[in-house]
Amino acid sequence: MVYFAFHLYGQRLFIMTLYVTLAELIGSRIQQGLYLPGDRLPSVRALSQEHGVSLSTVQQAYRQLEDDGLVEPRPKSGYFVPPSRQKPALPMVSRTAQRPVEVSQWDQVLELVSTPPYGDVVQLGRGIPDIEAPTLKPLLRSLSRLSRRQSLKELSYGCVEGEISLREQISRLVLDSGCRIPPEDIVVTTGCHEALSAALRAICQPGDIVAVDSPSFHGVMQALKGFGLKALELPTDPLTGINLEALEMALEQWPIKAIQLTPSCNNPLGYIMPEANKRALLELAQRYDVAIIEDDIYGELAYRYPRPRTIKSFDEDGRVLLCSSFSKTLAPGLRIGWIAPGRYLQRVLHMKYMSTGMSAQLPQLALAEFIGGGLYEPHLRRMRSQYARGRELMTGWVSQYFPAGTRVSQPQGGFMLWVEMPQGFDSQRLNRLLAPHKVQVAPGSIFSAAGKYRNCLRMNFAPKPDARQEQAVRRVGETVSALLAEQETGLEEMSVR
């Protein structure tokens, strides 16, 4: 029988909707290969009897799976797994410099983040979630209601650790990732960016070396640059994450102070590191006495349920600093992140005080109310479903509009797609050519300390798909094709000479 999924928020017990639970169960069976492309799925009546639920519950579950692109109905025949379509090849495993380097690429990052996110430019490159979902409206009402109260509490400084009501809710949320972290061990920050920055400054001194996955989040790259740190980029598989053998060799060769990575729903590759690899990575960190800075900002957006465990969930000696935020699951404008820094708590508090002091009270109180009222999990379910569907559509558009041989990531969560063209392609030039057409992508070079991945780009599929978005992807693909044709012509001319 389908089991209820229980989440204890505050003093209330909320029960996950039956049809969602059933849809997740069938969806996981499809993704695990228990039902193959073209297979007929169990009938509505058969599932009703098997799981002890109503016919309408099963029908709702199938409608949910249909929306996710995992099943297709056939009149008078039932529901089927869609026939498989050939997926593009995965990006190559990254090749790195295998030595610490100083970070560059600030000008390209500034160009990306300086573009207004909601102007007339189709922002395919920015890491912005869909903030137009109706499930966010209660959060807006909480913000409005709190701002109208006569109390002046929301205008005060608060405490440097953050609002206790929010930290209590975060403490309950992290149970899903396998963590047991008391509220007093959590620090609220101004976004995940501040959490990562505070973690780096708490551990490292200028000139120190930090091992990172590659490609890696451009915000971390620029934090390393700003603090005078060096990055040691590690070979990274697009499905399983960093190469642990390469990491061990690096730990033997270099005085690495910290390992920074995004192991769950990685940005930009979208992989989920296998649990065994997470345990092995932690063992390496323990053996060489190195801290781990774990960015879990996309972890709750994993398409599969339950969500993946964090490295922090295996940590017994406090060496993992777990960083996250509500910027990707809810809205970046809240500017609410958090960090569970383990043994580094006092240092992180000092770093936070030196940077922003206290974080704004009002959004913290509204968010605590939103989560405590049981509204966060339904929103997450809606977004996971939308983003999983967006991945399939975006991958299909890339296959349709980009030249043959284009390599594409297979994200297992989040809303980012990594696209790889042949060596010699210039994604920075691509962006310049797209500018008159009001389209922007994220050039791959900003995701590397040394400016690698110039032949790659990152695209966002968070918004609900529409004709304007598809036309933008088509424009990108056509421009890529034109640049590659020009590149090939140039090579032919050189060979003739």
UniProtKB/TrEMBL annotation:
Q: Which InterPro entries match?
A: Aminotransferase_I/II_large (IPR004839), HTH_trans_reg/aminotransferase (IPR051446), PyrdxlP-dep_Trfase (IPR015424), PyrdxlP-dep_Trfase_major (IPR015421), PyrdxlP-dep_Trfase_small (IPR015422), Tscrpt_reg_HTH_GntR (IPR000524), WH-like_DNA-bd_sf (IPR036388), WH_DNA-bd_sf (IPR036390)
Q: Which PROSITE patterns match?
A: HTH_GNTR
Alphabetized GO MF terms: DNA binding; DNA-binding transcription factor activity; pyridoxal phosphate binding; transaminase activity
Among Gene3D superfamilies, the record links this protein to:
Aspartate Aminotransferase, domain 1, Type I PLP-dependent aspartate aminotransferase-like (Major domain), Winged helix-like DNA-binding domain superfamily/Winged helix DNA-binding domain
UniProt domain HTH gntR-type: residue ranges: 16-84
Domain of life, per UniProt, equals Bacteria
This protein's UniProt keywords: Aminotransferase, DNA-binding, Pyridoxal phosphate, Transcription, Transcription regulation, Transferase
The record's family statement is: In the C-terminal section; belongs to the class-I pyridoxal-phosphate-dependent aminotransferase family.
PANTHER family, A to Z: HTH-TYPE TRANSCRIPTIONAL REGULATORY PROTEIN GABR, TRANSCRIPTIONAL REGULATORY PROTEIN
What name appears for this protein in its UniProt entry? Answer: DNA-binding transcriptional regulator, MocR family, contains an aminotransferase domain
Native species: Pseudomonas indica
Lineage, highest ranks first: Bacteria, Pseudomonadati, Pseudomonadota, Gammaproteobacteria, Pseudomonadales
